[in-house]
Amino acid sequence: MAKTTPVNLNDAYVNKLLLPVAGEMIVRDATLGSFVLRLRHTGSKNWIVYLKQNGKLRKVNIGTVNEVPAADARRIAQSMLETPNPASSDAAERLYKPSVSFGDLLESFMETDGKTRWKVTTWRGMRRRADKYVLPTFGEKKAKAISRAEIIDWFEKLKQEAASAPVSLSLVKSVMDHAEAHGVRPVGTNPCARLQKKDLTRKGNYLSERQIGKLWRYLDRRQTTHPDKCDALRLLLLTGARSTEITHARWDQIHGNRIILEDSKTGPKTIWLNSWAVEILERRNADRRSDFIFPSKCGTKTMTSPWAFFQRIQKSAGLKGFRVHDLRHTFASIAAQHGLDHKAIKGLLGQRDICSTMAYSHLISDAETQSADDISLGIQKLLNKGANAGKKTKANRRSSQRSQRAKKDESARTRTTLCGLREPEETQQKRRLKTRKKVALGSPPSPLRFSLKASENSQSETCEQARTWDWSDIDWGNQREGN
């Protein structure tokens, strides 16, 4: 077990820590020596406090870094150390009464964990959803008394009236995790755990190949009059990035074939650029007039959203019902159709939750099915080839032998004729016998069979001349005597 120099444990420092290659690593807090952070190579990061009870050292797990912020974990550890006979649940309950209401717990969560977890704009959105959708139903109820059935019933009704129902469910789940971390609910009793937030059978709205081609042609037509809007829409389709991640990007964020964002909706993110995207950026870089890739007319701000321009392009191209965000869906659908799995698409899109990527599961399943069919067909061909190898019928063997002899005789006759050489007398006699048999059966002899006769009379005649031989001049009955 590796140990490091004591440091002031905070959320920013914890996020930068790398996991150990093997085993676990302990990072001790500089202000509270018994309070540590345990990192394991499996990916877990837990707050731990060491306590002495009855002369023995006891290790108490406070929670994971995702469930409990550093400030709350330190406060819980301090409470445990100050309690004569502490227990993990008793110390946590000192922050909240056992009968605390869900509304009070949510308010505390929003002011502590919420502000450290979310950006300002995200926090405001969560605040609005809490006031509109969550608190009217659960605000007065005890946090520990809310059941899973109540959560499911509330969520099913909310899905019918609000598109942000999955986000509201995520908020309730986070508050319940906060309740478990502070002992209000027993660990493992979160009523929102493993609830499916999104309908995985719903097919996202994305452009087909024909629609992509039509959109691209209309962007070419508007390139001279609206170059910024057209280039932005092209990059959104080629990268799968969110709209603001492209329109707010700066030139100093470009590193080779990547755009590295220090901050995005889901934190730090890398946008990968293909050859077409790089070509667009190189063309724009030649006429750079601002620090932003897509500046406003004054050059000091970013350009406005291309939403209105995209609606006009749709109308001109005969496309209906698409949003700018559907270009991102289109990118994901193409990736799925080319065999990428959920994890790879999640990384390309920069999504935090795998459930968001699962919206494209039907496309990924289709691609996997097609790949499996192709592989099965290839294996079947190999098996059939191996089963039939060396297993020829009697008729096939005779046909193969005749074909090989014919090719061999044809090659020998051609070389003999073109080089002006005579075949052995025995070979010539055999050939004449075969010719007689064919004539007797009523089939004319091959013109090439008389190329040797022509070569005897004139060494300069070629195979082509032999093919044009006048068969009526040949004495069929005196061929033996002439030789």
Helix content: 40-55%
Query: Rough shape?
Result: extended
Count of alpha/pi helices: 21
Give me the side-by-side strand order of the main sheet: 1-2-3-4-5
The major beta sheet can be summarized as: 5 strands, mixed
Mean pLDDT: 77
Unreliable parts: 84-93, 417-421, 443-483
CA-atom Rg in angstroms: 40 Å
What does this structure look like?
The protein is an alpha+beta fold. Helices cover 53% and strands 8% of the residues. The protein has 21 helices and 8 strands. The strands form 2 sheets. It has a 5-stranded mixed beta sheet. A 3-stranded antiparallel beta sheet has the order 6-7-8, with no helix packed on it. Helix 4 packs across helix 7, helix 5 crosses helix 7 and helix 8 packs across helix 12. It is extended, with a radius of gyration of 40 Å. The C terminus is likely disordered.
Task: Summarize the model shown.
This protein has 483 residues and is α+β, with helices and mostly antiparallel strands. The chain has helices at residues 11-16, 70-82, 88-92, 102-117, 120-138, 148-161, 165-181, 209-222, 227-239, 243-247, 275-286, 307-317, 326-337, 342-349, 354-357, 361-388, 394-419, 425-440, 451-457, 463-467, 479-482; strands spanning 2-3, 24-28, 35-40, 45-53, 56-64, 254-255, 258-261, 269-272.
